[in-house]
Design goal:
492 residues; mainly alpha; extended
């Protein structure tokens, strides 16, 4: 059986025929040894046809199609023109070697040409790629490199193009930074507590919150200077006047040691850094909430912004999360426990990252696994809607959340939940009604503008008619005056 090779270069499609395979042998090792020698490899592989791309845009289009495993019309016509014709209902007497298995399967489905893409074919194509500029005689030195560079830039640029408002990479970076900040703020706050406790040990029992402790330590500075004048400022920070008075009283009878001014300055600076980090953490959380509402509004409204962002981060992207089945999404984040259970033949984990959702915590111990499975199912639906839907709305996420709430009631009280098809129908109807409401004000504003235009067009004509009428009235008055004067003259 004859073997043809399809090579997709940066400058066009090339078709080669492998003729003298007996000279080098049919095994992969023999081909690998013959690739380096052009004289030997040139006897085995010969150029049959070459079709250059029409333009750089056409080259990018062909490259995208090949990477997705699709055969374009240009490639089909090129193959049908240069390959031996295959009769209908009969198998081809040759095979086509391709580098991409997906492309080969698509070619064989549409044209009935048998394709292969094994290691033997890949070694032959590697040799073709190595000596390609020698096979094409009209190519000038450096032309192929320029074509490869230009196509690589345009292909990468096309892949990087995206909707700025739906960048899930920003969510991934934000949730990583948020988790890191939480750890750092906790460790730094504990360091502030230990450091300042040498000076004022009683403050730890009165103020439990780390952020408030840093603010109070920054305000007090030296405990010996504490007086009743500090009570309003302490009350503003703590929100409790009794605690403020308790701090002032504890400062008067404190057992802590005195610190030098330099030590106090270092403690105050470190407390200020912790406060700044805590403020930045709040701003970052607000940023994460807004980005999640832009990128995955349904997932955020269903399971929360932080848990949804962790799922996207662990999956790698929103698209990867949408491709995951619900069974994978359920144990996402518990891979170590899963493989340990498979290795030891123990019980597999029931939940991963979705355990942090409030729904799992509200479910009873015997229903946590059921709830995790049901919640993973709804999260999978929400992520697919967010990823592949054209418009963004929270309607589906809110409806899915209602379903999860109903399922919780069903497990606790036995109340039968609604069917999924009914909930989805109501969600679609609500989205359509929202779209209608949004379209109505636009139509009303368009009608008002048309009315204004018609009024402005009618006003000059109306003014003209009014002007004619006023002129007629003036002429009639003049005639009446003239008649009166004539009558008076005749009487005289």
């Amino acid at each position: 059986m004859a073997l043809y090779l399809l090579f997709e270069s940066a400058s066009g499609y090339a078709l080669f025929q492998a003729q003298g395979l007996d000279e080098i042998g049919q095994n992969t090792e023999a081909v690998r040894n013959s690739v380096a020698d052009l004289n030997r490899f040139g006897k085995v592989v010969q150029l049959t046809a070459f079709q250059p791309f029409a333009s750089a845009v056409d080259g990018l289009k062909q490259c995208n199609s090949v990477s997705e495993g699709l055969m374009t019309d240009e490639l089909r016509s090129f193959l049908e023109l240069n390959l031996p014709k295959v009769k209908e209902g009969k198998k081809s007497k040759f095979s086509l070697g391709v580098a991409e298995p997906k492309l080969g399967s698509h070619i064989s489905e549409t044209t009935n040409i048998s394709c292969q893409s094994g290691e033997f074919v890949l070694e032959l194509l590697r040799g073709v790629k190595l000596h390609f500029d020698k096979f094409i005689k009209d190519l000038k030195p450096g032309d192929l490199e320029k074509a490869q560079l230009g196509l690589a830039h345009s292909y990468s640029r096309a892949k990087v193009k995206f909707n700025v408002n739906r960048v899930d990479n920003m969510v991934i970076q934000a949730i990583f930074l948020l988790d890191t900040l939480d750890k750092d703020i906790n460790s730094f706050s504990m360091r502030v507590r230990e450091w300042y406790s040498w000076h004022f040990p009683e403050l730890v029992k009165i103020v439990n919150d780390n952020y408030l402790y840093a603010r109070v330590a920054k305000l007090i500075e030296d405990k010996s200077k504490l007086s009743e004048e500090h009570i309003p400022a302490l009350t503003e920070i703590l929100g409790d006047e009794d605690k403020a008075k308790e701090i002032v009283e504890a400062g008067k009878a404190s057992m802590g040691q005195d610190l030098t001014p330099v030590d106090l300055i270092n403690v105050q600076q470190f407390a200020q850094r912790v406060m700044d980090l805590a403020e930045y953490r709040k701003n970052l959380y607000d940023y994460l909430v807004t980005k999640m509402n832009d990128i995955a509004p349904n997932l955020a409204s269903l399971i929360g912004e932080v848990v949804g962002a962790r799922l996207i981060s662990h999956a790698g992207s929103l698209t990867n999360l949408a491709k995951c089945p619900s069974s994978t999404l359920q144990i996402l984040g518990a891979e170590k426990a899963l493989f340990r259970a498979l290795k030891t033949r123990g019980n597999t984990p029931k939940y991963g990252l979705i355990f942090h959702s409030s729904f799992i915590g509200r479910a009873s111990a015997r229903n946590k696994g059921r709830m995790a499975r049901y919640l993973a199912n709804k999260c999978s639906i929400a992520s697919r809607i967010d990823c592949f839907a054209e418009g963004s709305s929270t309607v589906f996420g809110e409806k899915l959340r209602e379903q999860v709430e109903e399922r919780l009631e069903f497990y606790d009280k036995g109340v039968a939940p609604r069917k999924n098809i009914d909930v989805m129908k109501s969600a679609i109807e609500s989205t359509q009604s929202k779209e209608m409401k949004e379209a109505q004000p636009v139509e009303a504003s368009a009608k008002k503008s048309k009315k204004k235009k018609s009024k402005t067009e009618d006003s000059p004509a109306a003014a003209a008619t009014n002007g004619d009428a006023s002129e007629d009235a003036k002429s009639e008055k003049k005639k009446k005056k003239e008649k009166r004067e004539k009558k008076e003259g005749t009487r005289a």
